[in-house]
Structure formats: structure tokens, C-alpha cells
Design brief:
heterodimer; A: alpha+beta; Four Helix Bundle (Hemerythrin (Met), subunit A); 4 domains; 4-stranded antiparallel sheet; 9 strands; 11% strand; globular; B: mainly alpha; Serine Threonine Protein Phosphatase 5, Tetratricopeptide repeat
Chain lengths: 662, 384
């Protein structure tokens, strides 16, 4: 009964969404308070219903109810409890339900925190959110119903895809979806603004925290996915420019641009139309990303063939929302007043530069991702746009941006002085070059480009610190004053510094790994030793072991440095019994920010085993940097200035400028 | 019943939640511009704070203050302009329509969609509850047996149990591998060989192919009177078009079976279908007496003698049909060609004569027959 109640809750959520899409919007046009207010209740109701539905599906997974097709296809009675939970969203149907859950959660948040929004804006935003929810609910119910039943119920499930039986899967998709779906709020705000034909100052203040939140989650989600691929797939790579990864990276690039342009809009009322367009594009890319991953917009013409309804449904959703929003933009954008002027050299100018590069980068990734797919769909030719394309184009695009990052916060609004900013960054540049030289010394030379890359990363960190130092007046004013000033700085300043420093840390990690990593592939027999990254690894042999739902062969390695044993590690080849599917469980040892990565390959006829060993210097900087970025987002989000008071209802007309004119 | 009560309560609760704000309608809405003013006032506060903390240069602060003040003025003006009395119209028709929509849409959309996609009669089936009370839950028995076999893959008895269950639940591939494992581990027996053959036959959609036949013959060698093996072998003969042999085989089964054996009705059906085969031809393709695709495929695999036998069988049945219905030009052409191929010139000449009796020399048909005869080197002189 639980399962069927969950199913009914989902259907009822669809019905509620329909009402939520219609009533508040009609209310906004008629200025009818009652109708607009019903949107708020509907948003809560939809969220509760989808949550019930999700809980019912989770219950079915946890209790191994194989009469539910989704449970049968993606679970097994023997898998550990945590994977029974994560198996709920480790499949197409369940993940679409999770998507809906997060979408309606955000709608409920808008309903809850939206008291300080103009009534009509809030009503329109809730309407658009409900429209998206309706489309997804229909998609789930008609083409990917997680509550489809099986009669008779099978006795055992087909197991969760072994690659997904990992703690990473439990965290990665929810984070990613929080990011993707968070941008839906920005999208709804943009569409609402276009419908109303005006952009309030409140609009900009609202869009920024949502963008920040979504962006932070997306950053975390992408980083988590990258780390998961790194340790689970056993290739030692952390980014493959694979369509699935690009799908999440594109909204991130567009979202980063949105984050910065929303800042300009909030402070200076400039770039209004551009910000609206970016908000539309970011969520459009999120939608594309959501679907590119599963049935694929183009990836698999084959997936369309197996279930054409799904593919067509997806195309219709994409056309409806992306096409509809852009059409609305084309018609109404002219009605939005463009605001504030600024000189090319100014904080605004720097942010425009940032936006130009980020959107170009997003377009580059989009082209590189879709072009081979489109070509294959149209002509049947298979071409591969591999990492070289992306590394060349994307890397070159990013270089000037990375160099410019520290300048942004140092430039004044409206009219800035590059030279002055450059002088103030002198210390940061010097710090960067010093670090580069230090690395050159430690590594005994190395590619010049790599050294410059490390210097660039260090310079960005230095730049972020410089900003804080200058703002606090450290060195110019007494220490106590400086400290008071520093602690009085708005949180968003710290957020900016943290995030920009995070980019620098990630750059250092990427450059170090790319330039200085070493790879050793060799056949090892028990007792044999080899060298990697200054450590000696002794292969002690392989033994069989048994997990709850897999069997494995684990190889043991002892690691020593200068003759002293420092660590040992297991690296395993697993065979998941239910699906007869092998996976690798790499043995990973962390030394500071660097890692030793050991992966077992095939057996050799002479009794040896192929072993792949990588020394990955400073690789943890890549993800450490993203954690800093995410923290920056969170700190910014906690800024008091993002919380604005609501005008009390029916108050006296606002007149004049009470204190401001003093 | 409880399910429907909960469904009703859920629907009613959501309806009430949505109706509440509609019923409470009234009160003024906020006005465009009012919120903007609030934001700008906030920004001025921040500016003051920043200036006091020395975070912004005094002249810059002054400029920013002027800009924000300008915006605040404009926003306040908008707010005044838009201040129209509202709330009066809100209690009107739109509100009642909205209430009606809430009351209608939720149950109608909810029930229509649920009844088409849901299965309200199906209870939950959590594994623990099923294991506690397995009853005749075949799927569960299979899963348990599979688990035991996974732990101990050389357990022949397990395969013996599992194989027929697989067969009965239509998982023929699994049945085939289970039967062959049972044969490998426990040795051949009529039960296992027969089950193996039966699964193969079921998988190929009822065709008795070589692999199945081999197993059946092996089974017969172990137990010559096994009715199942004999039945499938007879069926194989029938499928090969060896009607006579098949008929004999089926009759043999009847003869050796005890009276009232459960398989007799099925066997008799086959006998009834085979026995009058050459007396009452069916319509369509059978009218020409052409072999079907399967028979031709079989013919290719046969030895020369067998093939000859098959062709002769076909020819004689064709001859019988032509006797009944001579107005079949194609049939005459085929039989003449067949006799010629078999080297029975006399019979070919006879067939030509008979054919020409139905299709006179002067007609189109007659001329075609004569041309064929000339091509095959049959003497056309003796024909009328």
C-alpha cells in the first residue's frame, strides 16, 4: 500500500503543480491577493507530496520490495544498507524523482522566504517553478514511472550497478541536482521579470543568493563526481572531458558568469538584460545536462529507439522551456530599462571581461560536446573531440581570465585605475614567481609552462590575500584598527577572496599533476619492488576475499621511503556476483596533498600481475581548491546584506528620503 | 478500502490547504516600487556603515549615496503612482472560479492519471515479509535456490530442483543451462535429458532441432518407452514433412501407452491431423503441394536417398491433388519437371499427356507445357 500511496502522492503533486502554475499567475494579472497567495500553499503542498512519494520509493528500496520494477532492476537484497538508500537515485527513474523533490523543495523555499518580494513577482516565480514541476511530473509518470509494478514479484533484484556502489554515489547526484535545480529559481525569476516587463532592485538581490547557493552546490557536485571518477574508475584520471562531465561543467561556467553579472546588476543596476539572459542560459544548460546524462539529447539515437516516447518527451520539454524562455526574452527584453553606465576600466568592466570569457568557454565546451554527437546523428560519421581540443581551447581561454581575477576586486566601481591595481598586486606577482622558482628548484627544472602555471596559481592566492590586506589597511593603520576593519568587512569580501584563492589552489593542483605526475606500468611478481615518486613499493602478493555481494582479489603493497616502511595499501579487483561485472578498487595513499595511486591489472602467464602505479603530486589541491570555492560561496551567502527587510503591508505611502538626504 | 480512504484524506487535505488562502482573500497587495524603496534604503544603510568603517573613500561614498538616493526617489514615485485600491475585485468571480478549479482538478486529475498508471490492488511485497511466509511464491523459491547454488555451484541436486521451475516460469535459457548442469553433475537420466530437450524446443518456438533430437534419442536409449521423448521425436518427423513416419510413430505411442494416459488426447490430435493429410488438402500453398520453407531447409540437410524419398513423397501427393483438380497449370509443370529430375521419363510423358488433356495444345497453357517438355527432352509426339 505504501508504494501505491507514493504513486498517488506523485500524481496528486502533478495536479497541485497544475493549479500552482495557473492560479498565482492569473492572480498576478488580476492583482488578486487570494489567488496569488494560493501559490504559496500549493508550493508547500507539492513539496510535501513529492517528499511523501520519494519516501515511499525509498521505503520500497530499503525493504527490497521487488514487486516494484525500479527496485528489482536496481537493488539486491544483499547490498549494504547505504546502497539500498543511494540506489533510489542511482537509476533513471529514481533520479528524476530526486530532481523533482529538489525542484519542489526550492519552490517551497521561495514560498517561505519570498515574503519580502513584490506579490506579483513571487506569484509569477512560483507559477514558472510549477510549470517546470508539471513537465517533470508528467515525464516521470508517463515515461519513467518509478512505481511501475511487477506481477509476480521476482525473488531477487538485479543489483545496483557495481560502479555506483560507492559512497560517492550517495553524495554526488544530490549535490549536483541541488546545483542544477537551484538555477531553476534564477530561471523562474528571469522569466517572471520578462513577463512583468520590469526588473526590481529586489530582483537582483534575490537572484544573487540563489545563484550563490546553486553555484556552491554545483561546484561541490562536480568536484565530488570528479574525485569519485578518479578513485573508482581505476585510470587515475580526474577529468575526461566526457559529455557527462561537460554537461555539468557548462552550467557551472554559465552560473559563474551569472554570479558575477548579478553582482554588477545589484550594485550598479547595469547589465540587467545580460543578467536575465544568463539566468535563462544557465538553467537551459542545466536542463540539457540533466538529459544529456540519461537518455541523451543526442548521445544515443539508440536510447531514443528503445524508448522513443522518452526521447521525444525530453525534446519537447527542452524546446518548450528553452525555446519559450528565449522567445519571451526576444519579445520583452527591449522593455527592460538598461541601467548604470561605466567606463571600460572599472570593476564592472572587469566583470564584463569575466562574463565574456566564461560564456565563450561554455560555448566552446558546448560545441565540443554536441558537435560529434550531432555529426554522428546526421551523417553516421564518428569523430572524437577529445581532451586535446578541450585542453587547447579551454586552457587558452582561461589564461587571461585567471590572470585578471585578482584585478577585479581591486578596481573601483564605475571608473577604475588598472595601473594602481597592478601596483598593489606587485606583491602577489612576486609571490607567484617566487613559488614558481621554488618549484623549479625542488623539481630540478621542469617545463617552463608548468612553472608559469604554478606561479599563476600562487599569484591568484596572493591576489586574494592582497585584497583583504588592502581593505583592512594592514601596514598603514595601527594593527588594532586593521583588525577591527578586517572583522568589519562584509562577509562577501571574504567569500570573494576564498573563492578566488580556491581557483588558484585548483590551478596549482591541475598544473602540478599534469606536468609532474609519473606513471609506472609493469608486471610484478610477489616480492618484487619498484619506485614511484620517491617511494619504494613492494608487491606482497594477491589473496582472495569475499564481500557482501562481491568477490575480490586484493593485492597488498608495502610502501617505504629511504628503507623505512611508511605505509601499506590494498588494491583490489572486484567481481560483483549478481551482474558478473568487474570493477577496480584502486589503492590510494595520501602524502600531504600528493597521492600514490595503485591499480591492479590482469594476471600474467608467469604468475605476475600487471600493476599500474601513478605518483600524483599535489593532486588533492584540485579538489581542495573547489572546497575553498564552495566555502567562499557559503560565506558570501551568509552575508547579512543579502537579507533584506520586507515592507510591512498597508503601510503609509513611502515619501521622500527620510534620512538618506542628510 | 483503507487505501482509498487514505487517498481521499490526502486529496481533501491538499484541497483544503489550497482553498484556505482563497477563502481568506482580501487585504491589500504590496505595490510595485515599494519593495525597491526598501532595498535602496537598505543599501544606504550599508553605505553609511562602510563609510564609517573606512571601507570606502569619502568622495566615492558621496557619489554612491547620490546615485542610490536618485533611485530611491524614482522608486517611491512609482510606488505612489501604482497605489490603486485593490482587494475589492479579488473576492469576485475569479476567486470562486479558482475555488471550483481546486475542488475539481485535484480529484479528477489525480484519479484519472492514477487509475491509468497505478495498480491500487497490489499490496507491498517487502522481501522480509515474503521470506517469513513464502507460501507458493515460485519467484522466491527460485531466488533462494539460486542463492544456494551461487554459494555452492557444484550442487547437482540444486539444479535438479531449479531446472523444471525455470522451464515452467518460461525462463528457457536458464532452464537449458540448469538442465545441462544437472546432466553434467548428476549424469544423464530420461528426466534431465527430456527436460533439456523440451527447454531447447520451447526456446526455438516449438521446433525440434538437431541438438534436441540428440538428447531425445539419448533419453530413449536409456528408457525406450519414455512417451515424452517419443512424442517429441514424432513431432520432429512431422515437422520434417515425413508424414508417414510421423503417423507411425504417433500410433506407436498410443499403442504402448496405458489407456487414459494424460498425453493421449494430444497424440491423437496429431494422428487426426496427419492421417487424412493426403486425402483432404488444405487451401493455399497446400493446393500446389509445395514443400514449406522448413521442409526445404530439412531437405538440404538430408542424404541423397532421403531427399529422393522426400521428393517422391511430395510428387505422389501432388499427383493425387492434380487428379482431383486438373485445372492447375503450375502443378502440371512442377510434376513434369519433378519426374524428369527423378529420371522417370515414362511417368513424365504420362503427366504431360494428362496435362495436355486439361490444357489443349492450341491454348496458351498447352503451348507452355509443350515448351517445357521440349526443354526437358521429353517426347511430345505420343501426346494427344
Amino acid at each position: 500500500m505504501m508504494v501505491e500511496l507514493g504513486h498517488y502522492a506523485l500524481v496528486l503533486a502533478l495536479a497541485t503543480s497544475l493549479l500552482q502554475a495557473a492560479l498565482p499567475s492569473i492572480g498576478a494579472f488580476r492583482r488578486d491577493v487570494g489567488l496569488m497567495a494560493s501559490g504559496t500553499s500549493a508550493a508547500y503542498a507539492t513539496f510535501i507530496l513529492v517528499a511523501l512519494s520519494f519516501a515511499a520509493l525509498t521505503h520500497a528500496h530499503v525493504t527490497s520490495d521487488f514487486s516494484v520494477e525500479n527496485v528489482w532492476a536496481n537493488s539486491h537484497s544483499a547490498i549494504p544498507l547505504i546502497y539500498k538508500f543511494s540506489g533510489v537515485w542511482g537509476n533513471h527513474e529514481g533520479s528524476m524523482l530526486l530532481w523533482m523533490l529538489i525542484l519542489t523543495f526550492f519552490s517551497a523555499l521561495v514560498a517561505f522566504f519570498g515574503g519580502n518580494l513584490p506579490d506579483t513577482l513571487k506569484a509569477h516565480v512560483l507559477s514558472i517553478q510549477a510549470l517546470i514541476a508539471t513537465a517533470f511530473a508528467l515525464f516521470v509518470l508517463l515515461t519513467s514511472n518509478p512505481f511501475a509494478r511487477l506481477v509476480p514479484a521476482p525473488g531477487e533484484g538485479q543489483d545496483l550497478n557495481p560502479v555506483l556502489q560507492d559512497i560517492g554515489l550517495a553524495i554526488h547526484p544530490p549535490l549536483l541536482y541541488l546545483g542544477y535545480v537551484g538555477f531553476s529559481v534564477c530561471f523562474s525569476f528571469a522569466v517572471a521579470a520578462l513577463i512583468e516587463g520590469r526588473l526590481d532592485a529586489a530582483w537582483a538581490r534575490w537572484v544573487r543568493p540563489w545563484t550563490l547557493a546553486a553555484w556552491s552546490f554545483l561546484t561541490a557536485g562536480i568536484a565530488m563526481g570528479s574525485y569519485w571518477a578518479y578513485y573508482e574508475l581505476g585510470w587515475g584520471g580526474w577529468w575526461f572531458w566526457d559529455p557527462v562531465e561537460n554537461a555539468s561543467f557548462m552550467p557551472w561556467l554559465a552560473g559563474t558568469a551569472l554570479l558575477h553579472s548579478a553582482l554588477v546588476m545589484e550594485k550598479r543596476e547595469a547589465l540587467k538584460i545580460w543578467t536575465v539572459l544568463l539566468a535563462l542560459m544557465t538553467f537551459s544548460l542545466s536542463l540539457l545536462g540533466t538529459f544529456l546524462v540519461r537518455s541523451g539529447v543526442l548521445t544515443s539515437v539508440h536510447a531514443f529507439a528503445t524508448d522513443p516516447r522518452r526521447g521525444i518527451f525530453i525534446l519537447v520539454i527542452l524546446i518548450l522551456f528553452i525555446g519559450g524562455a528565449l522567445t519571451l526574452f526576444a519579445i520583452r527584453a527591449a522593455r527592460l530599462k538598461a541601467g548604470g553606465l561605466f567606463a571600460p576600466i572599472s570593476r564592472e568592466g572587469a566583470l564584463v571581461f569575466n562574463n565574456l570569457i566564461l560564456t565563450t568557454a561554455a560555448a566552446t565546451v558546448l560545441t565540443g560536446t554536441l558537435y560529434p554527437l550531432a555529426l554522428e546523428a546526421l551523417t553516421g560519421d564518428k569523430i572524437s573531440v577529445g581532451p586535446p581540443f578541450f585542453n587547447m581551447t579551454f586552457g587558452l581561454l582561461m589564461l587571461p581570465l585567471l590572470f585578471a581575477v585578482p584585478f577585479g576586486p581591486l578596481l573601483a566601481w564605475k571608473r577604475g585605475d588598472v595601473l594602481a591595481a597592478g601596483q598593489r598586486l606587485f606583491a602577489a606577482v612576486a609571490f607567484g614567481l617566487l613559488v614558481g622558482a621554488g618549484v623549479a628548484y625542488a623539481q630540478d627544472g621542469g617545463p617552463v609552462l608548468a612553472l608559469l602555471g604554478i606561479a599563476l596559481g600562487a599569484y591568484m592566492i596572493g591576489g586574494a590575500v592582497t585584497d583583504l590586506v588592502l581593505r583592512s589597511g594592514l601596514g598603514k593603520v595601527p594593527l588594532g584598527t586593521a583588525w577591527r576593519r578586517l572583522s568589519g568587512l562584509p562577509r562577501s569580501s571574504f567569500g570573494t577572496a576564498l573563492a578566488h584563492a580556491g581557483v588558484g589552489v585548483t590551478v596549482i593542483g591541475i598544473v602540478a599533476v599534469t606536468a609532474f605526475q609519473s606513471e609506472h606500468i609493469l608486471a610484478m611478481t610477489p616480492g618484487q619492488s619498484t619506485e614511484a615518486g620517491g617511494y619504494a613499493l613492494r608487491f606482497d602478493g594477491v589473496k582472495a576475499a569475499q564481500g557482501p555481494n562481491y568477490t575480490e582479489e586484493r593485492g597488498h603493497f608495502t610502501i617505504s621511503r629511504a628503507g623505512i616502511v611508511v605505509a601499506d595499501v590494498w588494491s583490489a579487483r572486484r567481481l560483483y556476483t549478481a551482474r558478473r561485472m568487474p570493477t577496480t578498487e584502486a589503492g590510494i595513499l595520501t602524502f600531504g596533498m600528493s597521492q600514490l595511486y595503485v591499480s591492479l591489472g590482469d594476471d600474467q602467464p608467469n604468475g605476475g600481475v600487471v600493476v599500474r602505479i601513478w605518483w600524483k603530486p599535489l593532486i588533492l589541491c584540485i579538489w581542495g581548491g573547489t572546497i575553498l570555492m564552495m566555502l567562499g560561496g557559503a560565506v558570501s551567502l551568509s552575508d547579512r546584506r543579502l537579507r533584506i527587510g520586507a515592507p510591512s503591508r498597508a503601510r503609509k505611502p513611502v515619501r521622500g528620503l527620510p534620512e538618506a538626504a542628510e | 478500502m483503507l487505501f482509498w480512504i487514505i487517498v481521499a484524506v490526502m486529496t481533501a487535505t491538499v484541497s483544503a490547504l489550497l482553498l484556505l488562502p482563497l477563502l481568506r482573500a482580501g487585504g491589500p497587495s504590496t505595490v510595485a516600487g515599494q519593495h525597491d524603496a526598501e532595498v535602496y534604503r537598505d543599501q544606504l544603510e550599508e553605505l553609511k556603515l562602510d563609510a564609517r568603517n573606512g571601507l570606502i573613500a569619502p568622495e566615492e561614498a558621496e557619489l554612491a549615496r547620490a546615485e542610490i538616493a536618485r533611485r530611491l526617489l524614482a522608486a517611491s514615485a512609482t510606488a505612489d503612482k501604482h497605489r490603486v485600491p485593490n482587494g475589492a475585485s479579488s473576492a469576485g468571480r475569479a476567486n470562486r472560479l479558482a475555488q471550483a478549479a481546486v475542488i475539481v482538478v485535484l480529484p479528477v486529475v489525480g484519479l484519472c492519471l492514477y487509475l491509468t498508471t497505478g495498480s491500487p490492488e497490489l499490496p507491498d511485497a517487502p522481501l522480509a515479509a515474503r521470506l517469513a511466509d513464502p507460501g507458493d511464491d515460485i519467484e522466491l523459491l527460485i531466488a533462494q535456490a539460486e542463492k544456494q547454488l551461487a554459494a555452492n555451484p557444484e550442487d547437482g541436486a540444486g539444479y535438479d530442483v531449479l531446472a523444471p521451475i525455470y522451464y515452467r516460469s518460461g525462463r528457457f535459457d536458464d532452464a537449458i543451462s540448469a538442465f545441462s548442469n544437472a546432466i553434467r553433475l548428476n549424469g544423464p537420466s530420461p528426466q534431465r535429458l527430456g527436460g533439456y530437450a523440451e527447454s531447447l524446443i520451447a526456446r526455438s518456438g516449438g521446433l525440434v532441432a538437431a541438438e534436441a533430437r540428440k538428447a531425445l534419442e539419448q533419453s530413449l536409449a536409456l528408457q525406450p518407452r519414455d512417451p515424452r521423448a517419443r512424442f517429441y521425436l514424432a513431432l520432429g518427423l512431422e515437422q520434417d514433412g515425413k508424414a508417414v513416419e510421423a503417423l507411425t510413430a504417433f500410433r506407436e505411442i498410443v499403442k504402448t501407452s496405458p489407456a487414459g494416459a494424460p498425453w493421449l488426447p494430444l497424440v491423437n490430435e496429431h494422428i487426426a491431423a496427419l492421417a487424412p493429410a493426403d486425402a483432404a488438402p488444405a487451401a493455399g500453398e497446400a493446393k500446389l503441394g509445395g514443400p514449406d520453407a522448413a521442409a526445404i531447409a530439412n531437405a538440404e540437410a538430408m542424404s541423397t536417398d532421403d531427399r529422393r524419398q522426400m521428393i517422391e513423397g511430395m510428387v505422389s501427393s501432388l499427383a493425387a491433388k492434380l487428379k482431383d483438380d486438373p485445372a492447375n497449370l503450375e502443378g502440371w509443370q512442377r510434376i513434369i519437371r519433378s519426374y524428369a529430375v527423378l529420371g522417370e521419363t515414362v511417368k513424365a510423358e504420362g503427366a504431360l499427356r494428362e496435362g495436355l488433356a486439361a490444357f489443349p495444345r492450341s491454348g496458351d497453357g498447352g503451348r507452355q507445357l509443350l515448351a517445357l517438355a521440349a526443354e526437358l527432352g521429353i517426347d511430345t509426339g505420343r501426346a494427344p
